[in-house]
Amino acid sequence: MNRPLSPRLGRYRFPLAVMVSGLHRVTGLAAVAALLGWAALLYRVRHGGVEASTLALALWWLGAGVVFFHFVNGARLLAMDMGIATERKGQQVGAWMVLATTACALLVWWGVAA
Length: 114
Known about the structure:
single chain, 75% helix, mainly alpha, 3 helical TM bundles of succinate and fumarate reductases
């Protein structure tokens, strides 16, 4: 018997809704780290410890993207808990809406912060 013991995950393509759901868990942890990092960065900038470098600005925008994504996807998951968009097509559309809304929120944030 030469059957594989487990499926080859490299050949399986996860649906977008599954990937967005997994990313939601990761960004939950990253959002906490981003908020703590923002607080430390603001403290150091205010007290003259660091200039607003390119790396600091990149981390600022990365943290903003993490927080926006986590917030918007959390709203999508709450809607699914209420029975909205629970079928496969609705989950796919919802996942794309989360990504688009996150991008739009970052663009608005950029306009406000600039």
